[in-house]
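Exercise 3.2. Students should predict the tertiary structure of the chain below and write it as structure tokens, then compare their answer with the key that follows.

Predict this chain's 3D structure.
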Amino acid sequence: MNRLNILFVCSKNKWRSPTAETIYRHDIRLNVRSAGTSASAIKRISEKNINWADLILVMENKHKKRIISEYNYLELPQIIVLDIPDDYQYMDRELISIIETSLEDILNNITNLE
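Answer key:
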């Protein structure tokens, strides 16, 4: 199986998406990156990130809407909303647990489709 390119997206690329990137950085099934939708994001989402991604996982629906509206000229990969509110610090244990549970469910569904 080829490694899946996953882009994790939150607003400022400060806590949620970098946590997800850190958790999965060494996972042999995946290549991961993270970015933010806000102009003040540490790593701002770009056309290059989107074209690289096989799958985009956003923390909130507003992130999906923003990507779709700003990059509507691209052929976008599937975008899945994880529904993780901005209530956590970087590497918060509860955040890690939520991300791992969500992503494993997604990966199992993808594997079952292949």
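Discussion points: Residues 4-113 form a domain with the Rossmann fold fold (CATH 3.40.50.2300). The mean pLDDT is 95.
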